Amino acid sequence: MTGGAIIRDATDDDLQAITDIYNQAVLAGGSTADLEPRTLEQRREWVASHTPRADYPVVVLEDESGRVAGFGSLSHFHPREAYDGVVELSYYIATSAQHHGYGTAMVEWLLDAARQRSCRMATALIFADNAGSVALMHRFGFTRFGFLPKACYDGSRYIDMSYWYKEL
Fold it and tell me: Could you tell me the strand order of the sheet in which 86-93 lies?
């Protein structure tokens, strides 16, 4: 792990940090399709939707000082049973903690967790112009399998979406 950082299961005590980091991404644009900041209760519901948590973890990354610097999750790819074994990974790193290798550490952790849970495939949905996340997908051997032009409108521009997968 990068510089003494750790990744661990998220707890209720982490909800404010998760909300704050997510809302940084909402306000900055370019990494989530939410246009308005989320409330603590909305983030609590999002965490609770990852059931069972043993199969669909929500984790936080603590930097060497113990501050939550990012979070990630494995989610159901689709609710229909035939898709069991396919997960969607997502991750967000605090603005002040970016470019320290935390995104790499989080994706690596999530892929390892998916393998440990006998998942057969990991997917990700990324804004096509999100160079950092696209680079991470390439680094970890993901393949782009789809491109949806002008899928999202952020209030000022249309944004293309890219779809990625990796066989595990």
Answer: 6-9, 58-62, 68-76, 86-93, 121-127, 158-167, 143-153
